[in-house]
Each structure stands twice: as structure tokens, then as C-alpha cells.
Amino acid sequence: MQQITVGVQGMTCANCSSRVERKLAKLEGVLTANVNLATERAQVSFDETQLSPEGILTTIVNSGYEPVTAQAKLSIGGMDCATCAQRVTKALSNQPGVLTANVNFASEQAQVEYLPELVDVPALEQAVVSAGYSIVDTSNNDVQDADERAQLEWQRAKRRAVIASALALPLFLFEMLPMLIPGGMMWRDQFVPMQTAKLISFVLATLVQFGPGRVFYSSGIASLKARSPDMNALVMVGTSAAYGYSLVATFLPRLLPAGTVHVYYETSAVIIALVLVGKYMEARSKGRASSAMRQLLGLQAKTARVERNGQPQELPVDAVMPGDVILVRPGERIAVDGVVRAGESYVDESMITGEPIPNVKRAGDTVIAGTINKTGSFSFEATAVGAQTVLARIVKLVEDAQGSKVPIQSLGDRVVAVFVPIVMSISLFAFVIWLIVGPAPALNYAMVAAVAVLVVACPCAIGLASPISIMVASGKAANLGVLFRRGDALQTLQQARTFVFDKTGTLTVGKPQLTDMFLNPDTGLSEADVLGYAAALESNSEHPIATAITAEAEARGLDLQPPTDFEARPGHGVTGIVDGRSVIIGNARLIADSSVTTKALEASLEQAQQAGKTALYVAVDGQLVAVLAVADRLKPESYEVVSHLHKHGYKVAMITGDNAVTAGAVGLELGIDQVLAGVLPAGKADAVKSLQQNSKVAFIGDGINDAPALAQADTSLAIGTGTDIAMESADVVLMSGDLRGVVNALDISKRTLANIKQNYFWAFFYNVLLIPVAAGVFFPAFGVLFSPMLAAAAMGLSDVFVVGNALRLRNLRPILMASPAQQVQQSATTSPAY
Length: 834
Prior knowledge:
Blueprint: E1 2-9, H1 14-25, E2 30-36, E3 41-46, H2 53-62, E4 66-68, E5 70-77, H3 82-93, E6 98-104, E7 109-114, H4 121-130, E8 134-136, H5 143-180, H6 184-191, H7 194-210, H8 214-225, H9 231-251, H10 265-289, H11 291-297, E9 303-308, E10 311-316, E11 325-328, E12 337-343, E13 345-348, H12 350-353, E14 359-361, E15 366-367, E16 372-373, E17 378-384, H13 390-403, H14 409-437, H15 442-456, H16 460-465, H17 467-479, E18 482-484, H18 489-495, E19 498-502, H19 503-507, E20 513-519, H20 527-538, H21 544-555, E21 564-569, E22 573-578, E23 581-586, H22 588-593, H23 602-610, E24 614-620, E25 623-631, H24 636-647, E26 651-655, H25 660-670, E27 674-676, H26 684-691, E28 697-701, H27 707-712, E29 715-719, E30 732-734, H28 740-775, H29 779-782, H30 788-807, H31 820-825
Parallel strand pairs: 19-26, 19-28, 26-27, 28-29, 29-30
Antiparallel strand pairs: 1-3, 1-4, 2-3, 5-7, 5-8, 6-7, 9-10, 9-11, 11-17, 12-15, 12-17, 13-14, 13-16, 18-30, 20-25, 21-22, 22-23, 23-24, 24-25
Helix pairs in contact: 5-6, 5-7, 5-10, 7-9, 7-10, 8-9, 9-10, 9-15, 10-30, 11-17, 13-17, 14-15, 15-28, 15-30, 17-28, 17-30, 18-28, 20-21, 28-30
């Protein structure tokens, strides 16, 4: 039996707590369930063989309430291979109250979701330490400190590699060089007696084995105690066998059979040196893999010129508060997010949006922390500081993506979980077979084969195959203005076969303009009268069409009366009272429901719709007075994106609340395969679900009113610019708002998954090929027997190869990109209006 306590948010009365309690009590495996409204806690006793904590949380969610969970991110030191990461995962997952634990070997971080009533961060950290690893303090996220920590790790790895190599090289030359020279061994034995040579080798090998090589003992012994042997255990067992055998041959030769008294000091020492050199190269490569993240962190300004008491003061960026007025000079980096109050300048936002052309900033425009002011000077009011800035949120989301797993990684995890025990079994089997049927001296052949198998089979390359590619790709994508919020989106996006676009603000510019007014001559109202009533009512709405109507009224200088009894009816229109008169603005359905006759202007409505415009009826005091036609312009890149998707075999669909005629005109112009028109916001998720019956679906919308559809899609992409990037709505955020980012994100996804598959292929191929060679399978036919020293070199090269292959993703470039002329002239496009 297990008992957990879960915080429950949202309960407001006794009926709420009773409802949750009843649902929990009905779960199979629940023994007792008690929900306390006053403490907002649910105490549940259950049979862990029949029910998991996740099942209890799901039941609370299905009851309409929110369980209280917490997230923790731990930086872990001392992990040397994928088996280490699995060991830490197991240690964290075994803690009571831990719901999920994901440990990333490449980024050396653990992401843990847990119940705060049962476990806290110190307990999680203690679990990591008890498993034989360390917790790295990352409380200060300053990029310089991060680089210093990375440099420290490199220096430690370098120091171990240099010391081991300096001691192993003379030993290698002393033992191996004479073998390459005819008569060299006899010449060496004349000057250095055999026993003296053994003692010299013993001293050098001992210094290597228990000097820089002790790192393998500290971690290897801990992994064996935990019954989860890792790379350190393989190296420790293999080199200890070679060193121990040599020790017996040096000081107790009578214990060995005749003809088997040989020493392998150079083998143990050179193996340790080569493995440490490989670990140093791997550390350097992993540091390069995270360079994109450090580049993002490095965008943060250190100081800001803040206006305090009427005087500018140079303050640390941490001292800036929301509401502060900040002065920016040419060439300076913007310290925090804000809104321009005075002045005008061009700002380079390329490191945030991926767009190289600077954007003009005037009063009322937003500016983003980390971007660079190019020419003029201006002042702005701080609106978001610290962790709330766009840059800080991007860094956090990229870190989360880098620490997450893609589905394909489960293959590597399953292999690694059983790989090391299998390798140890193969090593033991090879030793026994060689001992039984091997040529004389059989004991020597058996030991060489066993040690070679242990050393060559390090699973580091398998463990690095997926996370190192995710780390590089997600960081590079962020630099290009494509923000993968979840690592698994790097795989799921390329699986989509149907791309579904929202219309307004996605395929179109999202800034409709009032183009036509068709008046009912029987009412006697002028254009100014009708526009005044319509704009006054729409002033309470935030819909883009409402903005177009009010903007036209303001341009004509109309005096608008504040409306009363305003009511918005999503997907239909708005109603209210303006200057004592009842006003209705909306589609045919709303007008019909209001019993207003439309016959006088039905032809005008149809004419506007056939022209691809959104047409609305306006009724005053129950009489139809006008049809307003509003047009939105297609983004110039919409044609290019749809054409590219078609060219590569994808289907394209569009979902919109517009009527079928207007939506059909847009679909025809772009060549869209399927148009779903007249879909209300609440129905977009169902529309996506219907498309999912035939293929995987990627939905592209603005990330706010399209939230249900974004959540329903297999992969979702949000179009956003500046601070309005809707980071919490989608799997992928296109920072610049350019629709070409859809194609670029898809290309990044394809290339990343291909890179991961390449890594897995070579990692598995390497082990499948070299383990039999090391075991001596090909010796009877070809006389091939792998030296343990060559095995160590091959092991290090496999890790470096996988990391090097992943680093190729740093060269990713957008395959669709606006020309400078297009970027400058984009606002003046002559695209057809819809």
C-alpha cells in the first residue's frame, strides 16, 4: 500500500471536495480517499500494483480541478555515459512523490515533476548524491559564470588526460617500440634487465591507474553497488584485470601457468590515457554544442542608463524596475523589454527574430531585451524585467527543449538499459571460450579478448546520439527565430503530412481595412451616420475587423458615443445601444436571429464576398442600414510557403470563421487543397480532429484564439512577433511572424531527425562490428584480434564522431528567406485583398 497527499486547486465549496472524493474512491486500486476543502488537500491510499500517482492526478484533472505539482531542474556533475543518466533517472524516480524524471546526459540536467507535499528539492538533490553523482550550483545564470564552469570542466578533463598521457607514453614506447625494431627486444633486455623493466612499468602504470584513473574507480564501484554498471565500470574492470594480471606476473609469477607470465602494464595505462583523452575531446565538443545557448545568454545587457530623479544613472540590469524610463544611445544593447516613449531609431532584432533588417522604432512600439540600437537615440519605459523578458523566456524554453527527449530516443534508452550487463557477459564468455579452445598461451589470449570487449563497448555514443543533436538543433533554431518549446516537436513536426493554417493574422497580414460601405437608401442615413454607429459599438471589441471599422471612423474625425449593453457573440458579431438606438453588426446568422430583413442588401453582400472580402450587416433599431466590406491582405510569403509545401508532397488546408464564398476566394488564390469555412473558434479543434483521421496534422495559428486547435494538433506552430509570441500556446513559435518560418522549422525538424538516425546507425554499427572483433570471432579465419589499446582509441573516436556529426547542425540555414528588398517593402505589399 502507498499513500500520497495531493494539493487540489479550484475547489470552492463542499460539493467540489465531495465530487473529487467520489471520483477518487471509484478508481480501481484506491483503498481510501479523503478530500479536505479547508486545507485543499486530497489524501489517497492505494495499491501501487493497480494504480499510479499519475492516475490519481488525471482523475483530479478530469474532475475539473488542478493538482498542485512542482517542477525542478537540477544540474548534475559526474555523469560519464548514458547509463549514468539512467541511474540518476532511476534514483530520482524512486523518490516518493516524484511523478516524472528526465535526465539528459548531453546537457547534464535533470527535469523533475513532483508533489511538493511528499518531496522537496533538497531530497531530490540528496537522491542524486546517494547515486554517486554531484549537484552543480547554477543559481547564478550569468553567462560568464556558465562559461567559467564549462572551462573548469574542460581543464579538469584536460589535466587528467595530460597526466595520464605523460605517464603512459614512455611506458608504451618502452614496451612497444622495441617490438617494431628487428632485435629491439634483445637490445633492450641487454641494457635493462627484465625484472627491472617490469618494475619500471609497474611504477608508471600504478601512477596512471590510481592517479588520473581513480575517477573510474569512484564512479565504477558506485555503479556496481547500485547494480547498474556503466562505462566507468567497464573501464575499471578491464584495466584492473590487465593491471592485476601484470601485478601477479611481476611479484608472484609462480601462481601463473608456464608460458603465461606476461605483463600488460602498458595496456592498462594506455587504455586509461586514451579514454581520458576521448573524454576531454568529448567535453570540448559538448561545449561547442551549447555555444548557441551561451550566445543567447550573452545577449543580456549588463547595465542600463535609467532616469532616476530626473538624472540618468548607470545601474546594473538587475536593479531596473517595471516603469523605469531607460535611455538608449546608438550602438547600445537594450537592457529589458519596454515601450518607446520618445525618440526614433532602427533596432537590430536579428538575434531574436532571425530577420537581418533592422526595424524602425517609434513612440508606442515595443523593444526587446538583447536587441541592439543602431542609429538614433530614444527612451523607453520598462515593462518586463528579469525572468519576465522575452529573452529570458526564450532561454528557459530552449533549455527545456534541450533537456527533453524525442520519441526516437526511447530506442537508445532501452538498449543502454541492458547493454552494459550484456557486454560484461560477452566479455566473460569470450574469456572462458579462449581459455578452453584458444592457442597457447590460452590465458593471455583470453585476458586480451575479455579486456578488449569491455573497453570497446562503451555506450557513450548511443547515449549521446539523440540529446546532443537536440541540444545543437534547438539552440541554432532559436538563433534563426524558430523556437522549439518542446524537444519532441523536432521529431513530430516532420511526421506531419497535412499543414492547416488559420486565415486572419496567419495567411493574411491581420490588419483589415474598411474598403466599401453599401447603404440601404430607404433608411435616409448617411455614411457618416452608419459609420458612427458601427464604430462606436465596435470600439468595445478587440477583433481585427472592429479595429478596421474604428480606424476608418477616426480617420474621418467622427465623434463616437460610448456604447451601453455591449455584447460580443463569438463567431457572429456584436450588439449594443449607441446614443439610445439599438445597433447590431454581424453575419447573416446574427441578423436572421434578430429578425432583421436583409433582402435590400443581399446582392451587395454577395458582391463583396465574391471579391474575397469579409462582409457584415449593420442594423439600427431593427432595420438593415448597410453592408460593410472589410479586406485583409495576404502576406506576400503565403504564396511561397503554400507552393513549397505542395512541391514537397504535403497537403494544405485552411480553417476560418469567414463564410464559404470569402474563404473560397482565398483558397483559390493560394491553391489551398481544402478550405473549412464558417468555423467558430470553439469548433476549430473539432475541425483539426477531423483532418487527423487521414494524416498527422500541423496547425499554424496566432497562438491565442486558436489555442484549442493548437492543443488538438499533432504539432502546433504559433505565429508571433516581438513580445506577442504566444509562447505558452504551441510546440513551436515563429518569432519573426514570417510565415516562411513554417518551412524553415520543418526543414530543421527533418535535418535533426536525420542527424539523430545517423548517430544511432553509427553508434550501433560500431558496437555490432567491433564487439565481435574484440571478442576474437574473426581470429580463427583471419587471424584478427583486437588490441585493448586499439579498442580504447576506437571507443573515444566513436564518441567524438557522434558529437562531431551533431555539430554539423550548427550550419543550418533557412531554406526560405525574404530578400532585403522584400523585408523593407513588406508593409507596402500589393497582394490581393481578402
